[in-house]
Amino acid sequence: MPPTISATDHPLEKLTGDAVVVAVGKGPDGPLPTPGAEAVDRLLGGRLFPALADLGARGAQDEVTRLPSFGQGPFPVVAVVGLGAPEPSGGYLPESLRRAAGAASRALRGRRSVVSLLAAVGGTPDAERLHAVGEGALLGAYEFTAYKSQLPADRLTPPSEFTIVVPGAGAAEAALRRVRAVADAVALVRDLVNTPPNDLFPAELAARGAAAGEKLGLTAEILDEDALAAGGYGGILAVGGGSTRKPRLLRLSYTGPGARKKIALVGKGITFDSGGISIKPSAKMEDMKSDMAGAAAVIATVCLVAQLGLAVEVTATVPMAENLPSGSAYRPADVVTFRNGKKAEITNTDAEGRIVLADAIARAAEDAPDVLLETSTLTGAQTVALGGRTAGVMGSDELRDAVIVAARRSGEAMWPMPLPPELRKGMDSTVADFVNATADRLGGMLVGGHFLAEFVPSGLPWAHIDIAGPSYNTGAPWGYTPKGGTGVPVRTLLATIEDLIAD
């Protein structure tokens, strides 16, 4: 069961729980106090800050110091989490609170109920702080145990109950319902990404996505290999041709009350990517189960939009295939014909994401949307350019920049990238309209964006979010981000949609 979350405005001394969470900032001479930490310090008779100094706490991001209360308060454990250095204004960004709440949730495994004073930290409006603390607490408590055959009886589990102390708790309950919906959507993406590919092949991913949508009243359509052939989806069929588990295309549609704007979502669903004939090195190939993170994100996003009842029309078009080498696999030198009639010469079967996305973008554009948002684990070059935590965003300048603004508010790191025209010239083919990959490694992320641009009709605002790194954490957990699937970029997609319909 997912953890519960609620708000209270009761005085600290009247609250009970297995732990209380407070925060400190990082100052030049040691931890900087916050209102919540000062309240607990008073409750403990002035012992908190001297204890932190003795333990060497610095207030750095992701630093969590746990102390016993020795019976001086209603909580047996005090968790003091670092916020990092404050902003020049003296406050802290919502993302600092989100990370702090997540780090505390991870550090408090074995504690059932947690009271959080993090929303008392100043620097941003009350609503933004509440959302950040709530999201961080719930996302930090995520775990994936579906494939553990036996869990130890003495296993320390994440907290199952969070109470956030805020002024005006009654008004906060509506905000926390949204927090709960967002956390559930992110958890859905993480679960799908973490599921092994022998259990999450194209037909299964399509079925799970359709079931999630239909539960919320969405219209679902699944095209099998016969329907894909009849519909001219040559790219999806080519990539999926090497596997005995055939490709699919899922369409999920939602129309909210009073909808005036139509938004297309597209996400790459390669349920496993061996590279095909252009096979990848064996090292870390197991991480390629995450190559459907974009598909999972747009499925979860359209479901989240429906759950929140937003006044917008959204359709997710999700191509799904398994890229494997076999006698029926597509080959370098093949020419693929896409749904819109364009043709690509295949020079690298490991550049398969853009091949399935081409068909999906062409189909999504047929609905005449006002904007098109696409996300995918498209290129390894994204991680070379921006590292493992920052996504690259390309597309129409105005929409690209709107995505960046939404990402900054959501706490998902993204950076705007150009589409230099000289990189498009390298895609020219002597036998087809263009090649799917170039031999030049320079600007690989941007070349992928150029390929997708070939399938976006003139005049349609669009944005491509390359999440090759940030969608799957191969390192240690940090903040509210676990090892494995992260759920990026659901929160940015939601924020972008909300900004678009607010205009």
UniProtKB/TrEMBL annotation:
Residues 348-355 form the Cytosol aminopeptidase domain. Keywords: Aminopeptidase, Cytoplasm, Hydrolase, Manganese, Metal-binding, Protease. It catalyses: Release of an N-terminal amino acid, preferentially leucine, but not glutamic or aspartic acids; Release of an N-terminal amino acid, Xaa-|-Yaa-, in which Xaa is preferably Leu, but may be other amino acids including Pro although not Arg or Lys, and Yaa may be Pro. Amino acid amides and methyl esters are also readily hydrolyzed, but rates on arylamides are exceedingly low. Transmembrane segments: none annotated. Its EC number is 3.4.11.1, 3.4.11.10. Its main location: cytoplasm. It is found in: Cytoplasm. InterPro entries: Leucine_aapep/pepB, Macro_dom-like, Peptidase_M17_C, Peptidase_M17_leu_NH2_pept, Peptidase_M17_N. Binds 2 manganese ions per subunit. One of its GO terms (cellular component) is cytoplasm. Its cofactor is Mn(2+). The active site is at K280, R354. One of its GO terms (molecular function) is metalloaminopeptidase activity. Mn(2+) 2 binds at K268, D273, D291, E352. Mn(2+) 1 binds at D273, D350, E352. NCBIfam families: PRK00913.1-2. Presumably involved in the processing and regular turnover of intracellular proteins. Catalyzes the removal of unsubstituted N-terminal amino acids from various peptides. HAMAP family: Cytosol_peptidase_M17 (MF_00181). This is Probable cytosol aminopeptidase. The lineage of its organism: Bacteria, Bacillati, Actinomycetota, Actinomycetes, Geodermatophilales. The gene is pepA.
